[in-house]
Amino acid sequence: MKKKILIGAGVAIIIVVITFYVILPYLFVGPATPLFYIYNYDQNASHRVFVEIFNPDNEPIFKEMYDLAPGENVDCPKPVYLKILWPNGEYRFEITVDNELNKTYKTRIYPYLTVVIDLYHVDPISKEVYPVWVGSIVV
Q1: Topology, domain 32-138
Q2: pTM listed for this prediction
Q3: I need a surface site. Which of 60, 84, 92, 113 has the fewest CB within 10 A?
């Protein structure tokens, strides 16, 4: 009898933890945001973008190339474990555009944080054009 109570309590604790960390955030905020977005603001040219992501142990976890037409954008969904867990440490994003422009961006990864990669972004205040701009947004 005591064993059944302990098993029942263990199952109840697991259900509460899953509800607290997985279901409630989804209900209140919605699904996890993408891992990253790439926007090509250049209306005159296509660009090839190579994205490589390294975990805190400096091991590559993602490597992909994208060809973006003028004005095109693309996003990459997060792997399931990054949607649920809040991993420790900084992840490094290495972005190469047209095999010549390189940018490195380091950030922690959360379910509701998205890295934004803008190509030929125009600053609305200074009107300066940035060939590669990288930042992050949190919902």
Answers
A1: Immunoglobulin-like (2.60.40)
A2: 0.77
A3: 60
Give me the pLDDT at residue 82, please: 74
Locate the domains of the chain by residue range: 1-30, 32-138
pLDDT exceeding 70 applies to what percent of the chain?
89
What is the per-residue DSSP string for 21-76? IIIHHHHHH-SPPPSEEEEE--SS--EEEEEEEE-TTS-EEEEEEEEE-TT-EEEE
CA 50 remoteness from chain centre: 15
d(CA 83, CA 111): 5
* Residues 18, 11 contacting (CB under 8 angstroms): no
Percentage of the chain modeled with pLDDT above 90? 56
Residue indicated by tokens 């390189």: 102
